[in-house]
Amino acid sequence: MSLDERFQDAAARAKSLPSQSNENLLKLYALFKQGTKGDVSGPEPSAFDFKGKAKYGAWADLKGTSQDDAKEQYIQLIDDLAQG
User: Fold this and answer.
1) What number of other Cβ atoms are within 10 A of residue 10's Cβ?
2) Distance in angstroms (rounded) separating the CA atoms of residues 10 and 58
3) Secondary structure of the chain: what % helix, strand, coil (to 5)?
4) Where in this chain does the record put each ACB domain (predicted)?
5) Which overall architecture, per CATH, does domain 3-83 show?
6) Is 28 exposed, middle or buried (0-12, 13-18, 19+ CB in 10 A)?
7) CA distance readout (Å), 2 to 37, 39, 55, 60, 72
């Protein structure tokens, strides 16, 4: 199975994970975005948009991580969370 196929499989499995901490949800979001879009782009949300600012910050922390590395990390995190 190719990396992209494993990534899509992990993304589908993510929907059936039990409830996760905000920290894990931010990691998943950031890795998914880095894996699909690359480095963060666009303006940073305002300080009043707490959720948007947290998501933007988590994604920005991955700047310079290759899309393939982000996909591998995402797959590993899904596997770890699925095992509980």
Assistant:
1) 22
2) 20
3) 65, 0, 35
4) 3-84
5) Up-down Bundle (1.20)
6) buried
7) 18, 22, 28, 27, 11
For the chain, give every domain's residue range. 3-83
The per-residue pLDDT for range 26-77, each reduced to its tens digit, is 999 999 999 999 999 999 999 999 999 999 999 999 999 999 999 999 999 9
Q: Is the separation of the CB atoms in 16 and 55 below 8 Å?
A: no
pTM, rounded to two decimals: 0.94
The residue type of 51 is K
**First CA to last CA distance, the chain:** 24
